[in-house]
Amino acid sequence: MSDIEIRTRDKDGARILDVNGQLDSHTAYRLEEQIQASIAAGQPRLVVNLRQVEYLSSAGMGAMLKYLNVARSANGDIKLSNLPDRIDALMRSVGLAAALEIYQFEEEALARF
C-alpha cells in the first residue's frame, strides 16, 4: 500500500507543501486536502515541493490541477519545485508544464509570485 507525508511551512509569503512518498490514487486526496485548506486559510500562493516523491500517478497530477483555478482566482497560484528527473520528464511529456509552472529549485518558484 502506498504512503505519503505532507508537511507545510510558510516562506516568503507563500506556503510550501513538502511531499514525501507516493502520490497516487490512494494518497492524492491528502494533497488535495492540504491545498484546499491552505487556500481556505487565505494562503493561495502554493509551492508543491516534490523532491521526495517516489511515484506520481495521474491521480496525483489531478490533485494539483484540481485547485489550480481556485488558487488563481484567489490571486495565488500552484507552482512545482524540485521534481525528480523522471517525474519532471513525465510532467513535461503529458503537457502539464503548460498548466503548472515547474522550477528546479524552491527559491525560483517563490521568486515568481
Short description:
With 113 residues, the chain is of the alpha/beta class.
Question: What's the level 1 CATH class?
Answer: Alpha Beta
Please mark out the parts with pLDDT under 50 across 5 or more consecutive residues, or reply none. Answer: none
Secondary-structure element order, as H and E?
EEHEHHEHEH
* Number of individual domains: 1
Structural summary, described in words:
The protein has 113 residues and is of the alpha/beta class. It has one domain (4-111): STAS domain (Transcription Regulator spoIIAA, 2-Layer Sandwich). It is built from five helices and five strands, in the order ββαβααβαβα. The chain has helices at 28-40, 58-66, 68-73, 85-93, 106-111, and strands spanning 4-11, 14-23, 45-56, 77-81, 101-103. The protein has a five-stranded mixed β-sheet with strand order 1-2-3-4-5. A hairpin with a 2-residue loop joins strand 1 (4-11) and strand 2. The protein is globular. The model has no long low-confidence stretch (mean pLDDT 95).
